[in-house]
Amino acid sequence: MLASRLAGFVVASVGALLMGGGATATWITVGIPNESAHTAIRGTDLPDGVVVLLCAIVTLAGVVATRIAGSTSARQALGALVGIVGLVAGAIGAAFLSGGKDREAVIKALGIPRDLWSQFGAFRDLGPGAYLVVIGGLMGIVGGILTMAWAHDEPEPQDPGIA
């Protein structure tokens, strides 16, 4: 019981930190890397990155709330919330990795016409941000599952009230 409680807390918390770090890191670089003629787009420059950052905040709040919650069902619901939010963040990161080089949101963030965007071709490189988000999302899912397992095995808190 104690192992899954601590493991769920640690895994979900690290996952949230990776999600948050990934949301603020570079998701794509356009231009020639390490030259002055390039632009780095961070996750929070895009709507996807803002949603991931919110997922990281909700994950951290959910992990803390599981320690405060008074009932087993509330702990299980919060563990499920952590897992679902991790799934959302991981899915956003994976979707960006699979099609991020041609996302309309990136083109809009750069403020350039689509035909000019297509001329950049090979000068578009994915940064580490979306990868961190996927890893953090997976850790959030695992942390949520471990938290639900701990909550399921933990007995209901006893009220030390008047006997």
What's the quick description here?
The chain is mainly alpha-helical and 163 residues long. The chain has helices spanning 2-24, 47-68, 72-99, 104-110, 114-120, 129-153; strands at residues 26-31, 38-42, 124-126.
Question: Explain this structure to me?
Answer:
This protein is mainly alpha-helical and 163 residues long. It has one domain (13-32, 39-153). Helix content is 69%, strand content 9%. The chain has 6 helices and 3 strands; from the N terminus they run αββααααβα. Strands 2-1-3 form a 3-stranded antiparallel β-sheet.
Q: Topology of this protein?
A:
Elements: H1 2-24, E1 26-31, E2 38-42, H2 47-68, H3 72-99, H4 104-110, H5 114-120, E3 124-126, H6 129-153
Antiparallel strand pairs: 1-2, 1-3
Helix pairs in contact: 1-2, 1-3, 1-6, 2-3, 2-6, 3-6
Task: Decide which structural class fits the backbone.
Answer: mainly alpha
Radius of gyration: 20 Å
Terminal-residue CA separation: 28 Å
Specify the biggest β-sheet: 3 strands, antiparallel
Mean pLDDT: 83
Strand order of the largest sheet: 2-1-3
Task: Please tag this protein with its features.
elongated, 6 helices, single chain, about 160 residues
